[in-house]
């Protein structure tokens, strides 16, 4: 039996693409959310994005019909410690994540799980920033989090059984299925997906095939749902380059070093769907 969703109250740190998507998922399942960001305009944009995503999720049948949506509070400060869990979803920068985790860790009550939605930074590395490292656990929600039910959960070497149990209770309320993996740079999904995207971009840069043809072959021949380069646009090419840099720095594997085409696109501000242009062009920017 699932817990009463109002028994949970989340803080989500970061109101960008993933933070907004995670907030949508939680709100749609009846869980109250405090969404924190350092920029007021970002929070205003996030509210509009979340409203749109909730409508989309309902149309897709991705939300329970018997729950009242949770209350959304947006704020510039992480001052409210009366929460049952924190989900950190800021940019994939180890120093920035460590700073945010240290700040929230000093505010929340002992026993509150802190969940980092990193796509590749080792959890034990981030745990150094917390006053209670055993309360940190990793989750890798896929974008869009409000539609994709499978979640990669990363247990660090210091993550406690209590933290694992608290996260599983939350994921059950959110109707998510979890696969728990051990801590490692990139874990499973990013370690496999990101080098594939990198190689796909290299093929385009070398003139072997267009982005459309690469994705068509991967969908038609290998059963990839969207194709690696369309997936890259949804992830955000800026986020992808950051994640590949993390993998390259921590593994030394040259397959993880972002290729020239990815770096050129990011330098030009072509981040993917959220900026209207990446490997494809989009009629309306997505948040």
Keywords:
single chain; 43% helix; 287 residues; Rossmann fold; globular; eight-stranded mixed beta sheet; alpha/beta; 8 strands; 10 helices; 13% strand; N-(1-d-carboxylethyl)-l-norvaline Dehydrogenase, domain 2
Task: Describe the model.
This protein has two domains: 5-182, NAD(P)-binding Rossmann-like Domain (Rossmann fold, 3-Layer(aba) Sandwich); 189-274, Orthogonal Bundle (N-(1-d-carboxylethyl)-l-norvaline Dehydrogenase, domain 2). The chain has ten helices and eight strands. An eight-stranded mixed sheet has the order 3-2-1-4-5-6-7-8, with helices on both faces. Helix 6 crosses helix 8 (228-235), helix 6 (189-205) packs across helix 9 and helix 8 (228-235) packs across helix 9 (237-251). With 287 residues, it is of the alpha/beta class. 43% of the residues lie in helices and 13% in strands. Keywords: Oxidoreductase. Residues 186-282 form the 3-hydroxyacyl-CoA dehydrogenase C-terminal domain.
How would you briefly describe this protein structure?
This is Methoxymalonate biosynthesis protein. The protein has helices at residues 17-28, 40-59, 94-105, 123-127, 161-173, 189-205, 211-222, 228-235, 237-251, 260-267, and strands at residues 10-13, 33-36, 72-75, 85-88, 114-116, 136-141, 150-155, 177-182.
Q: What is the average per-residue confidence, as pLDDT, rounded to a whole number?
A: 94
Structure class: alpha/beta
What's the Cα radius of gyration? 18 Å
Following the backbone from N to C, one meets helices and strands in this order, namely EHEHEEHEHEEHEHHHHH
Count structural domains.
2
Largest sheet features: 8 strands, mixed
Number of beta strands = 8
Q: Give the CA-CA distance, first to last residue.
A: 34 Å
Helix count equals 10
Q: In percent, how helical is the residue content?
A: 40-55%
Range of strand content? 5-15%
Taken from the alpha-carbon principal axes, the silhouette is globular
CATH architectural type of the largest domain: 3-Layer(aba) Sandwich
CATH class of the largest domain: Alpha Beta
Strand order of the largest sheet: 3-2-1-4-5-6-7-8
If you consult CATH, what is the topology of the largest domain? Rossmann fold
Which residues form runs of ≥5 with pLDDT under 50? none
Spell out the CATH superfamily of the largest domain. NAD(P)-binding Rossmann-like Domain
């Amino acid at each position: 039996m699932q817990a009463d969703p109002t028994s949970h109250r989340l803080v989500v740190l970061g109101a960008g693409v993933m933070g907004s998507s995670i907030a949508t998922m939680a709100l749609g399942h009846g869980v109250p959310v405090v969404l924190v960001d350092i920029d007021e305009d970002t929070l205003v944009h996030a509210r509009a994005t979340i409203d749109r995503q909730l409508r989309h999720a309902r149309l897709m049948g991705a939300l329970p019909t018997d729950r009242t949506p949770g209350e959304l509070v947006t704020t510039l400060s992480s001052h409210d410690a009366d929460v049952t869990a924190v989900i950190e979803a800021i940019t994939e920068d180890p120093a920035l994540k460590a700073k945010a985790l240290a700040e929230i860790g000093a505010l929340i009550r002992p026993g509150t799980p802190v969940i980092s939605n990193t796509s590749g930074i080792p959890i034990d590395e981030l745990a150094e920033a917390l006053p209670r490292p055993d309360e940190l656990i990793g989750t890798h929600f896929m974008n869009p989090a409000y539609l994709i039910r499978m979640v990669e959960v990363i247990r660090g070497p210091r993550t406690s059984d209590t933290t694992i149990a608290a996260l599983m209770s939350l994921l059950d309320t959110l109707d998510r299925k979890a696969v728990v993996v051990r801590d490692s740079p990139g874990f499973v999904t990013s370690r496999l997906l990101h080098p594939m995207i990198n190689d796909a971009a290299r093929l385009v840069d070398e003139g072997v095939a267009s982005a459309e043809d690469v994705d068509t072959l991967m969908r038609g021949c290998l059963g990839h749902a969207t194709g690696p380069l369309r997936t890259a646009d949804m992830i955000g090419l800026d986020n992808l380059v950051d994640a590949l840099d993390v993998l390259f720095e921590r593994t030394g594997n040259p397959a993880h070093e972002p290729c020239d085409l990815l770096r050129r696109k990011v330098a030009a501000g072509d981040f993917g769907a959220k900026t209207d242009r990446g490997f494809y062009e989009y009629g309306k920017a997505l948040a």
